Amino acid sequence: MKVYGYIRVSSTDQNEDRQRIALNTKAVPSRNIYMDKQSGRDFDRPNYKRLVKKLKPGDRLYILSIDRLGRNYKEIQEQWRVLTKIKGVDICVIDMPLLDTRTAKDLMGTFIADLVLQILSFVAENERVNIKKRQEQGIAAAKARGVRFGRPEKPIPEDFEQIVSQWQAKALDIDQVLEVCDMSAAMFYKRLREFRMANGTKRESGKL
Where are the alpha helices (DSSP H) in 71-152? Predict the structure, then answer.
């Protein structure tokens, strides 16, 4: 029997220390701790998949809380079934002692564990939905205040007019223009249209 641990954080800037400390209290060897920095909306996570392949019947898996396993109600239920029924491992949820398959072997224990699992997995998915909703509301409110998202657009070079004139005179080809301006083709043509409109120039051959 080997002891494993699984850690999940939603993004690269989140700290996994609390989960790691909890696993250390259960004497989980550091080499047997697998971690993903990824959303819990599904189980398409590289290190989780590696962990599942590694697990053998009789092994024990520790996680701090059910939402660290995932935040998708149906998939949590399915993964729990795969791990306990197909892989034959024990799962211990540290924050919820009732979700410890070592102690839920009889009919009543299994019933209670299944009930708790359904409630907690529902809560985990509901929280994911609420987080997404709050993010969308925050973005909408920020946009209403004039906040712009995404990478800032590059300003045109000070000698943009001269660069364009050289391009039109075929002294520069388009690749050279894009390199000098440090822009993509789509951005260059967009900036060119804006420049022409701002300067009131006509769209005639040989002119800006």
Answer: 73-81, 107-144
pLDDT tens column, 87-139 = 999 999 999 888 888 886 666 656 667 777 778 777 777 777 777 787 777 77
Nearest partner of 34 among 71, 1, 2, 63, judged by Cα = 63
Global pTM value: 0.61
Long-range CB pairs of 115-123 (<8 Å, 24+ gap) are: 117/66, 117/76, 117/77, 117/80, 118/77, 120/66, 120/67, 120/96, 121/66, 121/70, 121/73, 121/76, 121/77, 122/73, 123/67
- Does residue 120 sit in helix, strand or coil? helix
- Helix, strand or coil for residue 133? helix
Q: How far apart are CA 208 and CA 206, in angstroms?
A: 7
| Active site amino acids | 10
C-alpha span between 155 and 86 (Å, rounded) = 58
* Closest of 86, 88, 82 to residue 60, by C-alpha: 88
